[in-house]
Write a structure and sequence with these properties.
By secondary structure, this protein is of the alpha/beta class. The protein has a single domain (5-271), classed as Metal-dependent hydrolases (TIM Barrel), CATH 3.20.20.140. Helix content is 43%, strand content 15%. Strands 1-2-3-4-5-6-7-8 form an 8-stranded parallel β-sheet. β1 (5-7), α1 (21-31) and β2 (33-39) form a beta-alpha-beta unit. α4 (107-124) packs parallel to α5 (136-149) and α8 crosses α9 (249-263). The protein starts with a strand and ends with a helix.
């Protein structure tokens, strides 16, 4: 039996897929990828993510403004992002966060938009998809402030329900901190990279509080690095984690799928 996966982060609205999206989705289905979560990066792509979700039963959308894009965004864009949350297949606010590596947007503006989008998530009772690059201290501080100010936001006891730190760059201790705030962490193809420390982190923390993602079209796993990434490649991530932790690929797929279903409340959507 083919293991069943959820790709929790794939930017299928990118022009990389314009001419062959149907083929990409067919390969994903054949590889056992039953659901794909598509996060927006600005207002335009958030609308495109919603349109993709409208047109495909197994695609769901996140809406938000990426830190790279906030220098071009307006307060009205935030209003429109919140309106998009009314769509039944919008399952999270994202991709949002802070990125101090490139500094494509002023840091103070990045912080402002992160805070305001976290507040949208609180008002709409939605989880968030957080991007964090070379900004750990500020990202953790802002997220923790939001959690402390809104303790009832997506609170569910021991299960993380407030969101996911995607393409997690941190240590095992930082992963535990994130989990304590009510968040999962997620790994793409970096787990297959020779110089990545992510496998060593996974050996410490296990897979009970993680999601899998491809971050397509980026982060293509070995042995396909250099090529455009796509959701079907998530199986390479699941296999690598299984081999490294000495557990079956089926177990990796099962646990991470259950986590994604729980976080994005996909069970509710299936009942509607």
């Amino acid at each position: 039996m083919i293991p069943c996966y959820i790709d929790s982060h794939a930017h299928l609205f990118f022009t990389d897929y314009t001419n062959n999206l149907d083929d990409v989705l067919l390969r994903a289905k054949e590889a056992g990828v039953n659901v794909i979560i598509v996060p927006g990066t600005d207002l335009k792509s958030s609308r495109e993510a919603v349109l993709l979700a409208d047109g495909h039963e197994n695609i769901f959308a996140c809406v938000g403004i990426h830190p790279h894009e906030v220098s071009k965004a307006t307060n009205q864009d935030l209003v429109e992002i919140e309106k998009l949350c009314e769509h039944r297949k919008v399952v999270a606010i994202g991709e949002i966060g802070l990125d101090y590596h490139y500094d494509f947007s002023p840091r103070e503006q990045q912080k402002k938009f992160l805070k305001e989008q976290l507040e949208i998530a609180v008002r709409r009772s939605l989880p968030v998809v957080v991007h964090m690059r070379e900004s750990t201290e500020d990202t953790f501080s802002i997220v923790e402030q939001t959690v402390n100010a809104n303790p009832d936001w997506k609170e569910s006891g021991r299960e993380p329900m407030r969101g996911v730190f995607h393409c997690f760059p941190g240590t095992a201790d930082q992963a535990a901190y994130v989990h304590g705030l009510g968040f999962y962490i997620s790994y793409p193809g970096i787990v297959t990279f020779k110089k990545s420390s992510s496998i060593e982190v996974l050996k410490e923390i296990g897979i009970n509080n993680i999601l899998l993602e491809t971050d397509s079209p980026y982060m293509t796993p070995e042995p396909l690095r250099g090529k455009r990434n796509e959701p079907a490649n998530i199986v390479l991530i699941g296999r690598k984690i299984g081999e490294a932790l000495d557990i079956s690929e089926e177990e990796v797929a099962r646990i991470t799928t259950e986590n994604a279903v729980r976080l994005f409340d996909l069970g509710r959507l299936e009942k509607e």
